[in-house]
Design brief:
Layout lengths: L3 E5 L5 H10 L3 E5 L10 E4 L4 H11 L1 H10 L3 E5 L1 H6 E5 L8 E6 L10 E7 L8 E5 L4 E5 L4 E6 L2 E7 L2 E4 L10 H13 L1 H15 L16
Parallel strand pairs: 1-2, 1-3, 3-4, 4-12, 5-6
Antiparallel strand pairs: 6-9, 7-8, 7-10, 10-11, 11-12
Length: 224
């Protein structure tokens, strides 16, 4: 069965992500409400303007729904502004979903005119030739927690990283023809959430009928 992956369609280049996912063999669906997350195995949070995205997430109720989705086993992939939203801490200070143990600095590479295409060096398990990404007012990962795995570096900076069922890229792999990052998300990160999601659903069902008490592990501790 094809993995069903939502793409947050409130702002940003969500159509490019949808196309990349489809070329990798996934079923992509646009997500604008909490209800549209139901039935998804993963969610992509694309680039855009992070403060605007935060406002849209709050007004739609998706900010809380995304946290619940992840605790239930759902996988998350954030690019550029999406990486900012998932971070534990943002510099300069800004609200975030605090789901990944990284510190992110916004607009670290400069303004729009400083945007560039870079070739990052992939690390295992990604491997292969240099990984092309576009960096458009891109953030920078300033600190990585102990459970965060760097997957690609550019000029000494980690530009792709994973923690359990969360993947972040500070650039835009969806705007190039290289599908390795999306394939990693589908075949590594999304699949890692299957067992936890099934367990979580069983616990919720049992709890509804009063036969057991559900104890859900926090997203940072549940990383496989």
């Amino acid at each position: 069965m094809k993995p069903r992956v939502g793409v947050l369609a409130l702002q940003g280049d969500f159509s490019a992500h949808a196309g990349a996912l489809q070329r990798c063999g996934a079923l992509s669906v646009e997500v604008r409400t909490p209800e549209e997350l139901h039935g998804c195995d993963g969610l992509v949070i694309p680039g855009g303007e992070s403060t605007t995205l935060l406002h849209l997430l709050r007004s739609s109720g998706l900010d809380e729904a995304i946290g619940e989705f992840h605790r239930g086993g759902g996988a998350l992939f954030g690019t550029c502004a999406g990486a900012i939203l998932l971070a534990r801490k943002v510099l300069p200070a800004q609200h975030s979903l605090r789901l990944m143990d990284v510190v992110v600095e916004r607009n670290s590479y400069g303004r729009q005119r400083e945007s560039f295409e870079g070739s990052a060096s992939p690390l295992p398990p990604l491997g292969g030739p240099p990984l092309s990404m576009l960096f458009i007012r891109a953030p920078r990962l300033r600190e990585l927690g102990a459970q965060v795995l760097p997957l690609a570096v550019l000029d000494g900076d980690v530009v792709l990283a994973r923690q359990g069922r969360i993947l972040v890229a500070t650039g835009h792999p969806e705007l190039t023809g290289d599908l390795r990052v999306h394939e990693l998300f589908l075949h590594g990160v999304v699949e890692a959430g299957d067992a936890l999601r099934n367990r979580y659903n069983r616990l919720k069902t049992n709890d509804i009928f009063g036969s057991t008490e559900a104890h859900v592990v926090s997203p940072n501790r549940a990383a496989p």
